[in-house]
Amino acid sequence: MQVPLLDLKAQYGGLRDEITAVLRDICESQAFILGPRVEELERAIAAYCGVGAACGVSSGSDALLLCLMAEGIGPGDEVLTTPYTFFATAGVIHRLGARPAFVDIDPVTFNLDPAGLEAAVTPRCRAILPVHLYGQSADLDPMLEVARRHGLTVIEDAAQAIGAEYRGRRVGGIGDYGCLSFFPSKNLGGFGDGGMVVTRHPERQDALATLRNHGMAPTYYHRVVGGNFRLDALQAAVLLVKLTYLDEWTAARQRNARRYGEMFAESAAADLVGLPQRASWATRHVFNQFVVRLPADRRQQVWDGLRAAGIGCNVYYPVPLHLQECFRDLGYGPGDFPESERAARETLALPIYPELTPEQQRFVVDTIARLLGP
To answer: What is the pTM of this model?
Structure first.
C-alpha cells in the first residue's frame, strides 16, 4: 500500500471539469493579471474570514512582506515572532532590515507562547507576528493585550490555517492583518503560488492594493515604492472553485484526525506517540498537518521506516529559526528556546489529506507501532 503525504491528484480528479471550464474562460479572455476574478476571490475570502477587506497577492510570503511594508517597518525595528515556523515568517522581517525577535512556543500547540511576550518587548518593537501553526490558532487575546499596551501591530500568519477559529472567530481577522497562503499543499491550494492579506480595517485596502502593484496609483504615478505582489487571475479562478469545497475538506481532515486518535489509542505504540492536542481556545482546528511527537532518539528510525514502507511523512521543522546559519548575527544559540528545539527534535507529520482512507490510516498506525515495537 502506498500512502502519500498529500494526494493532490485525488483532489483534482473530482474537480477536473469545473477547473477546466474556468481556466478555459481565462484563456479566452486573455486577462491574466488581477481583474474581476481576483476581485471576486477577494470578496469571497473576506466573507469567509469574517473581515471587511482582502487583497490578493502573489504568495503567502509576499502577504507577510506587504503587511510589514504597509506599517513602514524597516531598519532599526523589531518584530516579535516564533522561531518554530516556516522560514518566511522571519525571513520577510529580515529582508526589510528589521530584526526578528524570537519568543518560545507553547509545547502543546507549537504556537508562540504569549507568556513570553512582555519580557521580549523593547523600545524598538513595532509588531507581533504570531503563527497559527498546523491549522490551530495561537492564543491571541493575551497577545492583543500586550500589543495594546505597547502600541504594536498584530500580523497573523495564517498561512496554514484558513478557516481555523479562535474562540469562535476566524483567524486572520482578529489582529490588524491576517496573511494566507494558497501554495498547492495548503488546505486551500492553487495551481502555483498565491496568497492574500485579510484585514478587519477596510480603510487599509487601498494602501495594500497600491503597494502590491509597485506603489502605483494612478497608473505610472508613484508616491511610494511597492513591489510586484499581484495575484494572477488563473490562480483566483482555481481558488474560487476550490473554496466551495473547503468546509467539506476541513470536515474530512477533522474526521481523519479523530480516527488517528482512536487507532493510536488502541495500538501498541500508544505510550510512545504524542498526538496533537486541541487548545481550549481553538474552537476550530483545520489540521493543515497532523504532527505527532516521538521519542527524539527514535524519530529518525520511524521516519526512515515509514518512507521505506511507502508512507509519506516529513519533519516540520528540523532546525528552528534561531539556529539557522543565516540568522547567526541575531545572537541566539542552542538552549535559548528549549521548547522550539525540542519540537524540532521530536515531531513528525503524517498524512491527513481529505481523501485519506481508513485502510491507509490503519497501515500508517500499524507501521509506526511495528517500528516502535520491541
So the answer is: 0.95
